[in-house]
Amino acid sequence: RKEVEQDPGPFNVPEGATVAFNCTYSNSASQSFFWYRQDCRKEPKLLMSVYSSGNEDGRFTAQLNRASQYISLLIRDSKLSDSATYLCVVPDSSYKLIFGSGTRLLVRP
Amino acid sequence: GAVVSQHPSWVICKSGTSVKIECRSLDFQATTMFWYRQFPKQSLMLMATSNEGSKATYEQGVEKDKFLINHASLTLSTLTVTSAHPEDSSFYICSAPRRGVTQYFGPGTRLLVL
Known about the structure:
The structure holds two protein chains of two kinds.
Chain A: E1 4-6, E2 11-14, E3 19-25, E4 33-38, E5 44-50, E6 54-57, E7 60-65, E8 70-75, E9 84-91, E10 97-99, E11 103-108
Parallel strand pairs in A: 2-11
Antiparallel strand pairs in A: 1-3, 3-8, 4-5, 4-9, 6-7, 7-8, 9-10, 9-11
Chain B: E1 4-7, E2 10-13, E3 19-25, E4 32-38, E5 45-51, E6 57-58, E7 67-73, E8 76-81, E9 90-97, E10 103-105, E11 109-113
Parallel strand pairs in B: 2-11
Antiparallel strand pairs in B: 1-3, 3-8, 4-5, 4-9, 5-6, 7-8, 9-10, 9-11
């Protein structure tokens, strides 16, 4: 089993739609979790940090389920500019980042 | 604004030459930095952990003699791709942790070896 697993997508949704991505992790001792966004040919940029049960920032909501070892990212009212690859990231005990393979999102007009 | 910079942003070189990539933390000190490589349509793969004042730690399968890492100061780590070959063409990205676990990425260096 991979340490961090994501559905690769792509998710193709219309503007205004709500879309959710899931991510599962294998290390039950993990304490912090991150969602990064990566645009084509660019570096990943931090979108949200998740330390407790969840976090909300505008149209974006991240939820953590420790019992099932998964993190979700919900995007409401999708914009064209939300089109990107979303990376689920879980640091290990030495601060190395373990990346999921990424979920591609395409928001169409 | 950016918290980690990289230079150069892109480089084209001939096979057999060496290429140095710099990663700098801006306005903060980083005793540890990380180097990643990303091939098209793949996720980032950690190559090595750069440690200020000591040897880098390489991930399995990464040749330390080919990818030389130097972390000479608290704000600068360099990655040198020695005797580059076309298969080394990739997107190289560094990251540095700031305020604990949260890591910030440099803008990346796109390397093309002809």
